[in-house]
Amino acid sequence: MVRIDGVVQPAMKWSHWHAASDQTDRAGRCYNSKADRVMKELWISVKLKELAYRHQCVVVVTNQVVDVVERDAGNTVAWSSGRSVSPALGIAWANCVNMRLFLTREVDGDGASGSARRRMKVAFAPHLPERSCEFVIRRDGVFGVQPAER
């Protein structure tokens, strides 16, 4: 919702975003308008996609999330894999993705043996089925494994 000419209304057009004043964020930044914030914070997403297309390469950007324990602590809250989480790069970056891969690591037993179960799951990708696989990380690289192989 934005206030335009004294009337509060939904921000349906880009001109509405230009008219909406910005608020100071946790980093102390405040832009001229919400549109300026979007353009300055997300321009790199557009440039990375352009470079990936031009050079036919993959760009990986991690937006690590942490579990939200206290809802009123000022965290930006998103819902992921059945949990309330806060993305490190903010909710705007969380919505700039072409695909989302969810990585998990579970330590077996007491963890002393160093045995960890790692899984990669396709959480969002319009061109891929929702699948998952297990993998290991060793000195010589990252390798897929059969679930019973660990």
UniProtKB/TrEMBL annotation:
It comes from the Eukaryota. One of its GO terms (molecular function) is four-way junction DNA binding. Residues 24-142 form the Rad51-like C-terminal domain. GO terms for cellular component: Rad51C-XRCC3 complex; replication fork. GO terms for biological process: double-strand break repair via synthesis-dependent strand annealing; resolution of mitotic recombination intermediates; t-circle formation; telomere maintenance via recombination. This is Rad51-like C-terminal domain-containing protein. Pfam families: Rad51. The lineage of its organism: Eukaryota, Viridiplantae, Streptophyta, Embryophyta, Tracheophyta.
